[in-house]
Amino acid sequence: MDSKALIAQRVAQELVSGDLVNLGIGLPTLVTTYLPEGIRVFFQSENGLIGMQALSEKAAAFEDLTDAGGTPASFIPGAAAFDSVASFGFIRGGHLDVTVLGGLQVDEGGQLANWMVPGKMVPGMGGAMDLVTGAKKVIVAMTHTAKGAPKIIKKCNLPLTSVRRVDLIVTDLAVIEPTDDGLVLREVAPEMSIDDVTAATEAKLLIPDDVKQMPVWI
Amino acid sequence: MGGGSPHRLIDELVRQGKKDLTIIANDTARPGFGIGKLVDAGALKRLIASHIGLNPETQKRMIAEEIEVELVPQGTLAERIRAGGTGLGGVLTATGVGTVVADGKPTLELDGETYLVETPLKADFALIHALRADLFGNLQYQLTARNFNPSMALAATTVVAEAAEIVPVGMIPPDHVETVGVIVDHLISREA
To answer: Where does the record place a coiled coil (chain A) (predicted)?
Structure first.
């Protein structure tokens, strides 16, 4: 399984029926593909829809409907459309159960940087700052390293997305939970060892006795 | 990205060779599409937006200092426009506290929470895309092409709406009017 699929299927296991969920552009959108059987969640697209559905043979495109990245999309029966004021009201107002975002860096305090590399890449924050500030649960879904360099580091040196501590980090090597005491290693990917994970991580990881193997459902 | 833009109006701005515009929008779509056409034509002096990641031309012109770009979190952008259109003096939001977005902005402590004070946004013109308009200018939107349009229609001195369909007065039931016609100054159809 490729690393993105591994991450997406693990994130999908965090969702429970009835959740209102927002998925960031890129890797996080893959999560819809791996939703476990019987789990029904509502996907919010911050450009104004709850009940978003990816295009498929059964789900046709509609005029005036795209996902947040501008890709044509569809919706489930029972979907609801609204303007950007209402959409970010859901996000900041505590109505969003889970947001899944990509990351450039996460540090020992569980703080996320994911919206710019000064002088090199300045895409803008889009909805990310509101999502990390307002969602009940923030999951960062990202590759563990970038070109061999650790992305989980002591202190973010890229501009922060929010000062809020994220709730879970899911990578192709591990599942890590930021806590009051620091970053706790919860799971290690199949065929990886704890040493493999610590070697690819700059931040200090707390290693409990019961580190599990990352479950793979697909 | 690029959803809900009035493409015919944008094409006309490009045709007239407008320059030195300040654009307030969520994003600049992509090169050759939507607001991206205005970027390509060098029509922008200043941009207030939340995301330019899908338009490398905007990023290039920003780094070359041809366009002054203010990046605003998307929810804050929506509320600043809403405040501008509804007579509010500003917005208090926790979004951006402790980040570079907070630089130079006042903060306020209320009930133990810290908020940024964000200022209202207004414009001389709002160029609006709608699904349907009647001849009073009452507007209806569709799906994710609604986005910032209803708020922007309130936050500008002159409102120009471009509708996919223009219908006789009375065809849009009162409960389905989303932007009221009395604030819409000019109306054109999407197709020439």
So the answer is: none
